[in-house]
Amino acid sequence: MFMRKKRIVIALGGNALGSTLSEQRKAAGHTARVIVDLVDEGCEVIVTHGNGPQVGMISNAMAALSRERSEQPNTPLSVCVAMSQAYIGYDLQNALREELRLRGYDTPVTTMMTQVRVNEDDPAFLSPSKPIGHFMTKKQAEEAEKQYGYVMKEDAGRGYRRVVASPRPAEIIEMDAIRSLVDSGHLVIACGGGGIPVTRCEARLSGASAVIDKDFASCLLAEQLDADFLIILTAVEKVAINFGKQNETWLDRMTVKDAEHYIREGQFAPGSMLPKVQAAAEFASSRPGRNALITLLEKARDGICGTTGTLICQ
Ligand SMILES: Nc1ncnc2c1ncn2[C@@H]1O[C@H](COP(=O)(O)OP(=O)(O)O)[C@@H](O)[C@H]1O
Ligand SMILES: NC(=O)OP(=O)(O)O
Question: What does pTM read for this prediction?
């Protein structure tokens, strides 16, 4: 009998990819080893990634260029997201290709420039919530607010960051192309940085000023590819309740109902752990047998074997 391989969508956190080119190269190599371990386990893997630090860096660099050359208009955030997909996809694609070849696979690796449609009237456009760029002190954040008009917020106890609108993904424009590539055996990197945000008016797609959360875009991609597992890799091994407090408790398992309860209690920081738990719960509730896992990159293999991470299931 034909047994389909376990199909896994792996979402890599933007913060884990480092903030310089050399850090990113190193992280991509390390990430590739972890992903090819899962291929060795017989899994079919689709990769998505965040871009928070990187898209902030690109946006700052482009803004500095337009200040320096007054004829250069400011670069829209949608274009900065597109640049971040290429910047990160290039390193991941090559690192994966190399690791696969070293282990005797000739699997083609393809990065798909992915546009994701958002709704123009999404209320998220009115209240920026997605942290991007580097972490700042309170004083630096106040300076950035004054000098550049950025909206700044404290990010999960780690310092201040610029925040931008983060509407929910409604449709993956290149979905048919991604599905064809996956079905024909490519290891696909898609929905980078949550996808290039676009709105649609008849045949025309226009870039939107936003950064989509890659956890929500990954959930949509995993549902549409009929994946069995959504793995969200980040900087913590497990999800905690009472995070950072004396009674902090790390969770091995959360049902969708538990997740909803903890979300209502405000246990997860918006812009960091909250979207991960929301996306994981949404995926786990979309069809019986679908599970999601949140863990550290290094623990991905142990996680799918059930020995660590926080499993989110029905
Ligand atoms: N309840 C929680 N449990 C675990 N981590 C949490 C919690 N709330 C906030 N965090 C923080 O969220 C971080 C993960 O979010 P973030 O770094 O924004 O994600 P990404 O990996 O997608 O870049 C963790 O490293 C941790 O500092
Ligand atoms: N776009 C996005 O979700 O990026 P991070 O994973 O860096 O937050």
Answer: 0.95
